[in-house]
Design a protein that fits this description.
The complex is a heterodimer of chains A (about 110) and B (about 110). With about 110 residues, chain A is mainly beta. In chain A, about 0% of the residues lie in helices and about 55% in strands. Chain B has one domain (about 5-110): Immunoglobulin-like. In chain B, strands 2, 4, 5, 6, 9, 10 and 11 form a seven-stranded mixed sheet that branches. The chains are: A mainly beta (about 110), B mainly beta (about 110).
């Protein structure tokens, strides 16, 4: 059982559509990060959220941290083909300098 | 660019042979990590290091060992490779922020036949 559950596992949409990816847990995290990974490359950090209820925007991407710091969401507005990739959430439980990763959401944006 | 390189980038080996993967960083960061990535599992921590000669196990450490004799190099060894260790291996460093933000190398694709 994953400590961080991501949903959906796979998402295929048309360019211009909106989408939301969820990252849920029963554990509390001191911070939560979102990464994006393209085929053949390592994950790249998109954002870190640290305060319950926090909302961060990165162009067309909106990230939210749940009030209880147990869950997070990533919303993409007007998806583009360049958004295609694997999106990973990762939580820091605040000890041991280790992250726990979700299984990832594969996003495919079709033109 | 966090200055992380991994070698080799691809390797095919046979069951029972020893394999060593190398991670090299140019940023002098204290924390280094080895993960494996498999479909449906995301990234799972194998071992990590918090300084020269200081290492600890992650959630999937069985069958793997690590060494860190210099700040810049973190080695992952499969003592006797098995087919279940076929995976993509990523090295990461912590960038020094307060939030354990990690920066990843390009990965090593290992196939054990």
């Amino acid at each position: 059982t994953q400590l961080l559950e991501q949903s959906p596992q796979f998402l295929s949409i048309q360019e211009g559509e909106n989408l939301t990816v969820y990252c849920n847990s029963s554990s509390v995290f001191s911070s939560l990060q979102w990464y994006r990974q393209e085929p053949g490359e390592g994950p790249v950090l998109l954002v870190t959220v640290v305060t319950g209820g926090e909302v961060k925007k990165l162009k067309r991407l909106t990230f939210q941290f749940g009030d209880a710091r147990k869950d997070s969401s990533l919303h993409i507005t007007a998806a583009q083909t360049g958004d295609t990739g694997l999106y990973l959430c990762a939580g820091d439980r605040g000890y041991g300098n280790k992250l726990v990763f979700g299984a990832g959401t594969i996003l495919r944006v079709k033109s | 660019d966090a200055g992380i390189t991994q070698s080799p980038r691809h390797k095919v080996t046979e069951t029972g042979t020893p394999v060593t993967l190398r991670c090299h960083q140019t940023e002098n960061h204290r924390y280094m990590y080895w993960y494996r990535q498999d479909p449906g599992h995301g990234l799972r921590l194998i071992h990590y290091s918090y300084g020269v000669k200081d290492t600890d196990k992650g959630e999937v450490s069985d069958g793997y060992s690590v060494s860190r004799s210099k700040t810049e190099d973190f080695l992952l060894t499969l003592e006797s490779a098995t087919s279940s260790q076929t995976s993509v291996y990523f090295c990461a460093i912590t960038g020094g922020s307060d939030y354990n933000e990690q920066f990843f190398g390009p990965g090593t694709r290992l196939t054990v036949l």
